Amino acid sequence: MISDGKDEDKGQWTVIQRRMDGSVNFYRPWNQYKRGFGNVEGEYWLGLENMYQLTRKNKYMLRVDLEDFDGRKGFALYSSFSVGPEADGYKLQVSGFRDGGAGDALSSHDGQKFTTFDKDQDPYEKNCAKMFLGAFWYTAGCHYTNPNGVYLWGDDNTHHAIGDVWYYWKNNFSTGLKFISMKIRRVS
Fold this sequence. Notes:
Elements: E1 14-19, H1 30-35, E2 37-38, E3 44-45, H2 48-55, E4 60-67, E5 73-83, E6 92-100, H3 128-132, H4 167-170, E7 179-186
Antiparallel strand pairs: 1-3, 1-7, 2-3, 4-5, 4-7, 5-6
């Protein structure tokens, strides 16, 4: 059963990614994305190996919370979320989208391996992490969301699609988010 989102702060969620103030540089190498970085109370990446270990034996759902610089909030829920082993590129498995006003910018990334600037595993001819100054489960067209991209402080189209964007939030690649959080919860 998918939550309606009203119980998101009852301590049952494990934060796997958070951006909130631009204080942490997310343009990092593979080994840091593998083990994790940041501060659990602030900007944070749990680590791909930790995500794999959490999701390999149990079923998890994912909630992505968004907020823009105008105070508008939304979320996206996915009834199924897991990350595969390193030997398979920490492949993303995500499905069962339910809209909480954010739109679905993540389902197209399903089945993709994780890419950083120093480990290119995306299907695009160039390294998407280098092109868009982030790290993520990039697709053949690179992305519809780049939550680990540059913290933009709002609208900025100086460099196409490098920001911490969720395309369907405002149907563009130039509006950076004030806040984005990805968190998972075990499904019983």
